[in-house]
Amino acid sequence: MFQNPPLAARDPDLSNGVQLELSLMSKSVLRKRAVSLAWVAGVLLIIGLFPLTSAVFLGLVLVCGVYDFLRNGLYDRDTIKKYFIGNGRNTWVLAPFNTLLDLLSRRNRHVYTMHDLPPAWRDDLQQVIDDAMAHKDEIIGYLDTRMAEKKRGMLFFQWYGRPIETTLDIPQLRKKLPFVKTIGVSVFNENRSTSFHFGPLRMMFRVLYNMAPAPHHEGVYIQVGKHKHYWHDDPLFIFDDTLMHASFNKNDAKRYCLFIDIVRPTLLPSVLNAVIAGFAGLVFTLRRVFYKNWKLIQ
């Protein structure tokens, strides 16, 4: 019996497109495997060079990592795999440092409201929100002209306390504040989401603020651990981003969100500010690595 040839065979352009997509997928898989192998090789090299120090550190990583993992409140196989050998492995390795930050800071609520923050933190954060919303139409228009078909975009005005020059000039958003260290705006195109992932460091907490009213839609939310926050309920969400989280925009409208990092509330803010400044000095030029899945807009 005669059968129609495969669609790809009848349409050379489609065939080329499929081959290109498969090629890009295979390159992505190979890249991820290469990164994993390099990570394992680096760990084994350090253990070989410094066996005693490595044994002590690995003990701390194991104990603190279990504590850090349990904070998520999700103990299924997928979460275990994601934390210990997936994209959470850097958070696991940094668990001793993050545990030390927990000891130096106020009790971690995981998810916060504005009223949970100390007055000085609230004042700085509200100032940033007010300044950004005063330029809302200008910011959204600027992002719209540069997004095209990209999945997700990010525009930074400052990162870890360091101002970033942008074509869109809003000096108020580059002004240094004691308790706000990162100011940016993220944009999700229609029907785009992130995968579940973990932030690496607990020096700061993440603040997200929807710049435009969110539709009353069950597919537009952020999930942190077991907690789901629907944007139509409240445009503001503050959380510890070292917990497993993902953002979802399952509707036919773009979502524009202020992307802010604040110093986590602590009795020793000067110490934490010094740690943040030191980290920024080390990795500022490599910051694109942290946002490799985003289109960074200047």
How would you explain this protein's 3D organization?
This protein has 298 residues and is an alpha+beta fold. The protein folds into 2 domains: 16-104, no CATH class; 111-297, Jelly Rolls. 43% of the residues lie in helices and 20% in strands. The protein is built from 9 helices and 12 strands. It has helices at residues 7-10, 12-49, 51-70, 77-84, 89-93, 95-104, 119-134, 136-147, 269-283, and strands at residues 111-112, 152-159, 162-163, 180-188, 192-193, 204-210, 220-224, 227-230, 236-239, 245-249, 255-263, 295-297. Strands 1, 2, 3, 4, 6, 9, 11 and 12 form an 8-stranded mixed beta sheet that branches. A hairpin with a 2-residue loop joins strand 2 and strand 3. Helix 2 (12-49) crosses helix 3. The longest helix has 38 residues, at 12-49.
| Tally of DSSP β-strands | 12
CATH homology-level superfamily of the largest domain = B-lactam Antibiotic, Isopenicillin N Synthase, Chain
Judged by helices, strands and strand pairing, the structural class is: alpha+beta
Number of helices: 9
The CATH architecture classification of the largest domain is Sandwich
Order of helices and strands: HHHHHHEHHEEEEEEEEEEHE
Number of domains: 2
- As a percent range, the share of strand residues is 15-25%
Largest sheet: 8 strands, mixed
Categorize the overall geometry: globular
Q: Output mean pLDDT.
A: 87
CATH top level assignment of the largest domain:
Mainly Beta
CATH fold title of the largest domain: Jelly Rolls
End-to-end separation in angstroms reads 59 Å
